[in-house]
Amino acid sequence: MRRRNVKIIATLGPSSDRPETIKALFEAGVDVFRINMSHLDHDGLRLIHGKVRSVESEVGRPIGILLDLQGPKLRIGKLEGDAIMLARGQKFRLDLDPAIGGPDRAPLPHPEIFQALQPGQSLLLDDGKIRLLVVEVGEGYVQTEVMVGGRLSNRKGVNLPDSLLPVRALTEKDLRDLELALELGVDWVALSFVQRPEDVAEARKMARGRAAIMAKIEKPQALDKIGEIIDMADGIMVARGDLGVELPIEQVPGWQKRLTRAARRAGKPVVVATQMLESMITSPVPTRAEVSDVATAVFEGADAIMLSAESAAGQYPLEAVRMMNSVAVTVETDPTYPAIIYAQTTEPEATGADAISAAAHTVADTLKAAAIVCYTDSGATGLRAARERPHVPIMALTPRIETSRRLTLVWGLVCVLTDDARDVDDMVDKACTIAFQEGLAEPDQRLIVIAGIPFGTPGATNLLRVAYVAKKHAIART
Q: Would you say the pTM of this structure is higher than 0.85?
């Protein structure tokens, strides 16, 4: 049982992929494990997936798995001596010629880049450390002027902040990785290099509901169509690392807040990611600025906060998770937290599910209920209940293991696998017994139960019931 609402995602890697470490990370606070396909082959994916599922079986709790697809990787080719120095004001050519580059040119084996560039646009190399201004574009080449110079080495990445690239978000490698992941049964798929809603639609078509699709917001072009992308995706990730390369870095905090609030309005999970506790890769304690960064995401009401290299390759993966958990718990018990969360409450949409979820929040506050219990088959009822960000815990009861795993990423949800209710009386008894079992309610406390009639019908939330936890429910547990 977590005593916090925000969820924690940890990336698995060489520092953390042993079964005993995965279990320790879960016990320290991890709700979802991320598998990064940029550094893994199919045998590795099968192995890590199996380890997580084995730990899940051992602890008796649903654990989510988020597969992060690599996406297109745009890189320059090889250079003389493995590196060159670029000086501000010099001319520098990038072209399709595969010959080794030198002080005045470098190979760029991506014809799609030359199709997209226009004079006056920027080219960024090595995570934005080097900035080039496009002067001339020709057949298979681009002539640039170095605006910010420095050392450039082999195979460094290329970013085009001003250009919409004619590139699919799903590469051939991604398609192969995705197909295996769907066969294995991962819960979430994070889609890299999203520029337009059509990128998300392609992934959804391939997934066919077997996994939820999370759009990584890391390109400025995605911000222009963010409403449509959120509508198309099951959730979004604020990938601040790449976003901070292509946007002026001072704009990223504002966009983080806007994206978090936009996803919350839509009732879609939002993950804040990248460099949250970066110093803990090599240090057992974070900086004060990093703690404030994590706290800001929690205050803002993000569904999940994520560790990347800190848990995958760092020296202190367990300490990083414990620190993130401690910061989150402290923020959520801060006296200013409820007012900040409530200030962002969104008006319910004109649907039965939204009306019932909003009413559950109001009734729970009025009656000082111990918890809200929602029966959910597809997960939609759980998402709507979480969108309200109530003060009391939310328990999601579902007969589907796939649903319980997906909901582990959603704010505030305590996911429990159970048989569907037979009738209303059984619904109330199950809710009260399991709430007592989970430590969410005691005898004589009230619960708010929401469900859909007939039971087992996805998206049919139409029932709200106030229930009392009686001594018989405690006896049923013992």
A: yes
